[in-house]
Amino acid sequence: MTTVQDNLLLEAPLLRLPHELLRSSLKSQQKHVERDSAGLLALADRLSTTADPMELIAGVRARTAALRGKLSAAIDEERACLQACRARLDHMVAVESGMPTAAGGGVLTPDTYSDMREGDPCDHTSSHSAKQRLDRLICDYLLRQGLHETADAYAEKAGVSGLVDRYVFQQSASICAALRNRHRLTEAVAWCGEHKSTLRKQRSTLEFELRKQGLIELMRQGKAEEAIAYCHRHLAPFQQEYAGQIQQICALLCFPPTTTVQPYATLFSDRRWQDLCDLFTQTHRAIYSVPAVSPLEVGLAAGLAALKSPSCFAGTGTDEAEESRKSITSSSSACPICSPELNSLAQHIPAAHSARTHLVDALDGQLMEGDNSPVVLPTGQMYGCRSLELSNADILAATPLTAQSHRGTTSTNAEPTTTDPRTGEVFQTSALRKAYVL
Description:
There is one protein chain. By secondary structure, the chain is mainly α. The protein is 61% helix and 3% strand. It contains 19 helices and five strands. The protein has helices at residues 4-10, 12-46, 53-97, 110-117, 125-144, 148-158, 166-180, 186-194, 196-201, 206-220, 224-235, 243-250, 264-268, 271-287, 295-307, 319-329, 340-346, 385-398, 401-407; strands spanning 374-376, 382-384, 417-419, 426-428, 433-434. The strands form two sheets. A three-stranded antiparallel sheet has the order 2-1-5. The protein has a two-stranded antiparallel sheet with strand order 3-4. α2 runs antiparallel to α3 (53-97), α7 packs antiparallel against α14 (271-287) and α10 packs antiparallel against α11. The radius of gyration is 34 Å and the shape is elongated. The model is unreliable at 106-124, 328-333 and 401-411 (pLDDT under 50).
């Protein structure tokens, strides 16, 4: 059973992202207000000295209207972020209080909740929360793969639209598409300008790499004079930190784009666009506190590692192993790692360290301990004594009386027999042996 701390750990990205968006919006508003306020004050100071004050007043009005438009748009963004925060906090409260959430993130009313549970004697709150979390992680994975329409349709059907951060992934995908497909730097450079202070604090190299690529493209086109002017304007601020790389880029003026001399051939390579796309994705997720790896992949890997055992891969590739795996997967209590769907995924994942071994009964999936101690049949099969007794009772009830008489089960003097549920072989009960694990 998950605790409050476990849920907070699992839902940390869900709660952190709207906060980061609000913080980014606040910084953007602060920049707009400071810059436009300085300009408005400068225009106001000129009113007393100008010969045509009406022109300055018109400029003040235009600049004030522009500032108002920017702040109105920012307020709309903040309102959407606050609504997302409210929906996610309601979701967390619902998980802890045992009340499932409605589509879009709101808490269901008690009447609706009672209707959901009517006729169901089992408390499915934990399973509902786990299903909702799984749906959200699937949507997150689809967004990371660029399948935005599929993610939207799935989120709407699963009722987790208010818990999915579509905007962030869509923004990242559009800028990456401009870099990768159109070889255009405008959108990425503008994004760096909006987050310049944060990038500086994180010591990110993204803006320098984008400016460097802009200089390389001018040199590729043979525009030497424009390249020199571009270098003075955009790369001079990075001179102290990246002096060696800037000198190396300037040396491209001496080489054609088709050169095979290293490292200049690498600098002219189109592979740099994909590298820029990867660097932007990494930086974008770091700023918005989005996990670098999909939580769905992390959770799947953790589950595979926890369930993985050496027996799941014993004799891999042999006919005996294939027959054994078929027999295991056909049973009702099949090991998930032994299934064909997960076996290949778990091959390269390390097994979790277990300080204590637990034996699981193949008949009912229960632990073989206490009154369900393990017993071994002459065939080598191991079962829990309780489940084996219940299984034999079912077999005996389904066996005709003539067959029971033939087996000697109706005779009071006959020694009791036990049937192997898997092979159907019959043995005397005295042939069973208890198993002990050291």
